[in-house]
Amino acid sequence: MKAFTRGWIVLMLLAFTLPGISHAQATNLAGKWRITWLASGKPVANPNTINLTESASVGKMTNLSGTFIADDGEKCAVTGHKSNDTDRQLDMSVTCATWSISITGTVAVDGQRINGGYTVHYPNGPSLGDYEMDK
Predict the structure, then answer these.
(1) Three-state secondary structure along 47-108?
(2) pTM tops 0.85
(3) How far is CA 10 from CA 4, 19, 20, 100, 127, in A?
(4) What mean pLDDT value characterizes the chain?
(5) Which of 28, 129, 70, 130 is nearest to 78 (CA)?
(6) What is the pLDDT of residue 129?
(7) I need a labelling partner for 6 at 20 to 30 A (CA). Which of 23, 34, 42, 79 fits?
(8) What is the 8-class DSSP label of residue 45?
(9) What does the alpha-carbon distance between residue 113 and residue 105 come to, in Å, rounded to a whole number?
(10) Could you tell me which of 76, 75, 68, 79 has the C-alpha nearest to residue 37?
């Protein structure tokens, strides 16, 4: 009976502490990122900088905001969100004066790299590609 009681106590402790541990290990994307645009896995332009901040989490999503610095020095607004569950999905938008970028991707488990695809929306039409982001 003592073994059953100890097992029950351990089970209850795990039930209440694992969600907190899991949440504590959630990836934080705040900080300076380098984004490299790719074609066939190779860089096609100079990397750009994205500075991100995280705001309050709502359920399984965390809101992102920040600044994208374009090649010509133009600073553009960044908004988006990332999932806090096991799929680690990222969705962001970069909005500049005359163009914008839609970015989707997957955050690496260690939170130091993101890979995915993008669409640049130019006045004369869209352009698609892949990217890598790293801290």
Answers:
(1) CEEEEEEEEEEECCEEEEEEEEECCCCCEEEEEEEEECCCCCEEEEEEECCCCEEEEEEEEC
(2) no
(3) 10, 15, 16, 52, 55
(4) 85
(5) 70
(6) 96
(7) 23
(8) S
(9) 10
(10) 68
